[in-house]
Amino acid sequence: MAALSLSPRALYVEVAELLRQRIYNRELAPGSWIDELRIAEELGISRTPLREALKVLAAEGLVTMKVRRGAYVTEVSEQDLREVYELLSLLESDAAAALCRLADNADLAELEALHQQLEQSALPGTGSRDRFFELNEQFHRRMLELAQNRWRVQIVADLRKVMKLNRQGSLFKAGRIEQSLGEHRAILDALLARDEALAARRVREHFASGLQAAAA
């Protein structure tokens, strides 16, 4: 394979993104050992930027470093999932309540348009599962951004990277897409009504359903 073609970004950042996508796509399976020598040779790089990239992924929870054994793709346990979902529920329900106070009509219209795209992507023959997942994540991310707390946005982004390790086992289970759409609509309706308590509750219910599907 030809040496990795780089953008002006730091080499280790490029390598981290490449490995991140391989992990999400299951090219590097959960629990698998990461062969540093083979990957470095494949990319035409030294092991130094590769190891720096692995440190980034370890900080994100996607890679687990084991003493004298090297790096492994993180395996997400049921307890891990429960803890991630609980934190996401707390942070995003708080964001939904804040959004009711802070968002203007244009912000809410933007969220409604995103939800409509999400519904469209779920129709048979009109989209793909990857597109649905992308729009689903975009809807949640935009809610957080509009709630105007950059630290909350950052923490949730890191948690969602871990949640992606299990995405095939939750959102795409039979009937979960339709259920998720209904929950999104309920969240959006509460936001449009600017009902803080209801919006926060709908988000908590959404994550409770997601955890139930992931753990089943």
From TrEMBL:
<dbReference type="InterPro" id="IPR011711">
    <property type="entry name" value="GntR_C"/>
</dbReference>
<dbReference type="Pfam" id="PF07729">
    <property type="entry name" value="FCD"/>
</dbReference>
<feature type="domain" description="HTH gntR-type">
    <location>
        <begin position="9"/>
        <end position="76"/>
    </location>
</feature>
<keyword id="KW-0238">DNA-binding</keyword>
<dbReference type="Pfam" id="PF00392">
    <property type="entry name" value="GntR"/>
</dbReference>
<dbReference type="InterPro" id="IPR000524">
    <property type="entry name" value="Tscrpt_reg_HTH_GntR"/>
</dbReference>
<dbReference type="GO" id="GO:0003677">
    <property type="term" value="F:DNA binding"/>
</dbReference>
<protein>
    <submittedName>
        <fullName>GntR family transcriptional regulator</fullName>
    </submittedName>
</protein>
<dbReference type="InterPro" id="IPR008920">
    <property type="entry name" value="TF_FadR/GntR_C"/>
</dbReference>
<dbReference type="InterPro" id="IPR036390">
    <property type="entry name" value="WH_DNA-bd_sf"/>
</dbReference>
<keyword id="KW-0804">Transcription</keyword>
<keyword id="KW-0805">Transcription regulation</keyword>
<dbReference type="GO" id="GO:0003700">
    <property type="term" value="F:DNA-binding transcription factor activity"/>
</dbReference>
<dbReference type="InterPro" id="IPR036388">
    <property type="entry name" value="WH-like_DNA-bd_sf"/>
</dbReference>
